[in-house]
Amino acid sequence: MDGKCSNKLYMYKQYFKQAWHLLRQEKLFSTIYILGTGLSISMVMVLAIVFYVKIANIYPETNRDRTLFMRVGGTITADGSESSSRLSLDMIRTTMGDLKTAEIVTVVYAERCGGEVQMAGTNENLPVTVRYVDENFWKVFNFNFRDGKPFSEADRQSGIQTAVIAESLAVRLFRTTEVTGRSVMFNFRPYRIAGVVKDPSFVADKTYALLWIPWSADKSLSDPWGDPSYTGGALGRFQACILCPSVSKMEDVKTEIDANVQRYASTMTNGLVFSVNGQPDRQWQTIFRCCGGDTVDWNQILFYYALIFLIFLLVPAVSLSGMTDSRMERRLAEMGVRRAFGAPARKLMTQVVVENFVFTLLGGTVGLMFSWLLLLFSRNWILQIGQVFADVPPDGVDVSFSPSMLMNYTVFFIAFLICLVLNILAAIIPAWRSSHRAIIYSLNVK
Amino acid sequence: MLNTVIKQILNRKKSNVWITLELLLVFCFLWYMVDYFFVLAYNHSIPSHRNVENTYKLDLSQLSDLHPDYKPDDDAPLTLIDNFYRVINRIRLYPEVETVGLSFDAVPGGGSFRGGTIYSLEDTTRMISSAQVYAIVPEEDYLKVFHYTTDNGRKPVSVKDYDWSEPNGVIITRMVEELLFPGGSATGKIIGDYSKSPLRIIDVVDNVKRSDRNRPYPCYIIPQRITDANVKYVEVVVRTKGNLSSADFTEQFRRDLSPELRIGNFYLKNITSVRKIGEGNDLGFGYTTTNRIRAGLMLFFMVNILLCVIGTFWYRINSRREEIGIRRVMGATRQSIFNQLNMEGLCLLALITLPAILIEMQFIYADMIETPGRDQFSSISYLPDRTVLRFIITNILTWLIMAGIVIAGIWFPARAASRIAPVDALRSE
């Protein structure tokens, strides 16, 4: 057994050696082949990394895999007029205020908003992004506190004007991060700083801001919204993020929320129909959901992206197959000799595929690095892939990818997997053809 | 020569399968992108008879009541309007400013849309249900700021050309005239407006487009006075004399006028070039990203086919060294060898053209073709609406692009091959 194993190892080593030799022998051809592979893999990897940073656990949204999101809702009146919006506090409290299965629920005001911070001692106004949240926000999302601590439930209930600010803003305003207890002027109102957190990247779309304020600090935010004969009191300006105890418990939480929502929807009067269209969503689903009134056809979306991935792989695979085929034609004589001496066709096929994998892996490495370069250059808009309305970064905000978003085992594994698929697509037919030719024909070449 | 080439292709039909398949695949995908960009380019080429170069929008804002400098007295209706016009006067007097305009929902490419339903009183079936309404303040010259014209761009118009004492006066664009009064002149006629009393057409101006990527859109321009209620929504636009770059003007204007425009509770919040506002809207609605992704895909397909041609022909030429050597000995010039290889590539391309067209037609039947900018005003048709003509043009364009890439891809290995000294090539015989 042991001997057989080391034999096989020796064989693969031999294949790799041979491939390396071929590579150096035909420099131009190898370059073109590796470029072609690299191009394909870089395209796929750009897409893969874009979706990776949108879906994976990324600071401070490190619980994305076990968080559910209830963000929008829609109503239809008896005469068919449709409204869609975020949800009302009442709706969120009734359906998600007391969940038995969930760990914790945070209620967040709409999306990020713009505002201005007044710099002390100058007339300058600094535009900042603000998010109105509650105390549970700090438990659902794992912010890294540089100083101080989150504001508390008591803070929120008293409506006290307090804020957590981002490190970069603290440094900009006070030249230090140790500013807990000091005060920041936001829209001409003073807020006591409760804590300072490490800046989230703009890619963290559920949390990104420079300033987080309890929504109770501005009474007007929780005012009733819209015309109740259209909203049914269910639509408003809030959304909920529900942290589940574990990934496996998410279905239970969803079932509980579904039942609550159904009960809530049945209380609508005047023939009004309220629906959340299949929410709560998982993180990956939130990427594709834009408006409250639409049901989303997840299969269609998955099919669409699968098709794009396939095109990215198939188009280069055909030309790579062509090149591999021509290369094998030149080596027909070698194949013929080996088969004449008793090498089974299957073994030759494996050899061709493995040899080719050396090329593909090199191409993959080049491609992965090229995809980082592409992402670097397109970082301010590339994340808009898949969005209906583009989430454009506010002026002066630079979208940053941290090295850990680009270089991690998941990304490497995806890249390797794609190399494998591409290699099989590009080499299997040429390998089959060259190893199954009649020996006489193969030998005849020379 | 063609005969030889066809024979060559048939002789190597097995190794030609891959490159043929690749050409076919890429031809179809490339055509899809070419078609999209063709329609976009066509839309760009339709003139929009107004001009946004050297125009800027000023954001005047009012201090929040929490601001330490806020003065409640200045919010009294008369003082408010008075202060507003003092601000506008100072802007007009700034040396680099040529013209000032005031409007509501009327900044070109600004993204805001005020819709109106208008119809012909002569024939009430002729109706435009969502024409765009531009409301302008007649005291300032909105029309001159954006260089509105009549007579197909020949004659510039100005707000001062018209008598605005009549509140029901309206200026319509050529497209509205064509839709409501086909074949006739609309000037002086009355149109109905669902939301207000009938409007009398005082002039017809040239068509305008909502943005570069669109076709002309039916619009009409009505006067609107400034009141204390709407003053915070008014858009202040200026045209500069064009002596300064956009960045320089913005900075100078802000530096020079920021303190001067602090009148009452007003202050200058921002100044943006109108072009930039349009670009921002294209970005926000995802058009820019879509174009970038499609252009990226197009480049991807093109590089792919280039690599495929280089790779395939490199091998082919290397394995035909002997043949090339013999032909050189027989007196073939480098050029003629290059020509023959090119011919071989173009023949392959010609071979896949028909199947590619058949596949493309399936795209059309499946209604997967997009026509950006097409709207509900289908009675006015443009070239992209004529499917057959558009199909022919876009296929010719695709073919030319593909041919260019094929020749470029062959040139590289062919140059190396035609350099082979006949003696060297024949040695392997």
Order of helices and strands of chain A: HHEEEHEEEHEHEHEEEHEEHEHHHHHHH
Largest interface: A-B, 36 and 36 residues
- Number of separate helices of chain A: 15
Instruction: Please give the oligomerization state of what you see.
Output: heterodimer
How would you characterize the overall build of this protein?
The complex is a heterodimer of chains A (446) and B (429). Chain A is of the alpha+beta class and 446 residues long. Chain A has helices spanning 2-25, 27-55, 89-96, 137-140, 153-158, 167-174, 228-231, 250-265, 283-288, 298-330, 332-340, 345-378, 403-406, 409-435, 439-444, and strands spanning 67-70, 73-76, 82-87, 104-109, 113-118, 125-133, 145-148, 162-166, 183-186, 189-197, 211-214, 235-236, 238-243, 273-275. Chain A has 15 helices and 14 strands. In chain A, a hairpin with a 2-residue loop joins strand 9 and strand 10 (189-197). Chain A is elongated and about 90 Å long. The model of chain A has no long low-confidence stretch (mean pLDDT 87). Chain B is 48% helix and 18% strand. Chain B has a six-stranded mixed barrel with strand order 3-4-12-7-9-8. In chain B, strands 5-6 form a two-stranded antiparallel ribbon. Chain B has a two-stranded antiparallel ribbon with strand order 10-11. In chain B, strand 10 (208-209) and strand 11 (216-217) form a beta hairpin. In chain B, helix 2 crosses helix 10 (334-365), helix 2 (13-45) crosses helix 11 and helix 10 packs antiparallel against helix 11 (387-418). The model of chain B has no long low-confidence stretch (mean pLDDT 88). The A-B interface holds A 28-29, 32-33, 35-36, 39-40, 43, 187-189, 311-312, 314-316, 318-319, 321-323, 325-327, 329-330, 378, 381, 384-385, 387-390, 392 and B 15, 17-19, 21-22, 25-26, 29, 64, 66-68, 280, 283-286, 288-289, 292-293, 300-301, 303-305, 307-308, 310-312, 314-316, 319.
